[in-house]
Amino acid sequence: MATLTLSAPAKLNLFLHITGRRADGYHNLQTLFQMLDCGDQLSFTLTTDGEIQFSCSDKSIENDSNLVVRAARLLQPLAPHNAGVRIYLDKRVPMGGGLGGGSSDAATTLLALNQLWRLKLSNAQLCELGLTLGADVPVFVFGKTAFAEGVGEKLQPVSLPENYYLIVTPQVHVSTAEVFNHADLIRNTPVMSAKDLLDSEWKNDCETLVKRLYPEVAMVLDWLIEYAPSRMTGTGASVFAEFQDELSARQTLAKLPAQWRGFVAKGVNQSAVLTELEQAV
Question: Which reaction does it catalyse (predicted)?
Fold first, then answer.
């Protein structure tokens, strides 16, 4: 197989609790990752020149520091001599929104090259490598809607109703580093069991701070919550409203003020990339 085209799905954090700060500066979390039926798309073409060539529909992120390139370079030392690849990223997920686009792109790259270069690494090994690229990479390698702890790498699959979500991204770019380093961030939410968390009222510990730092995020939430239960995903700026049917989500999208970008997605319990990899074998 010389060419492989795969999805890199987006995600939502249906809740996000920060339970403490670790000695290494990272934070311990409890969160629920919901996989979505939409995202970026990547195409991989094998070469024999030993080069990693990367291009993207968004030229602003077409550089060697992109997580796609870093993921490919992470695996290349394990590949056959002169193994190279040409990668094209069709960027569709809004950046800086907390939807996991870059992490998902990296995970799909790890999964694709593990198969194309016949590395035979296990899912657990790929998750471990992915964690060196970013805390959200393992869940996309895992490929299932999941309850997560640690920095987000300790994963338990969860089966949820496949609801529809209206996801809205205001015209602001939230810095994840700024949020997690801020003195006012909530860091002391009590640790709960997965069962108790799934049965409790869901919240995002970053939301209060981000709404204060980025008033437009607060404006979107105030607008959305008139139509359905709404929260911020990750550290933002994207926020989402949950609907039980697609029509209701699309009717609300049609009312969205022109200054905000929005789209409707379905929550799924398994990432499309896992299915695509199975079909490509």
Answer: 4-CDP-2-C-methyl-D-erythritol + ATP = 4-CDP-2-C-methyl-D-erythritol 2-phosphate + ADP + H(+)
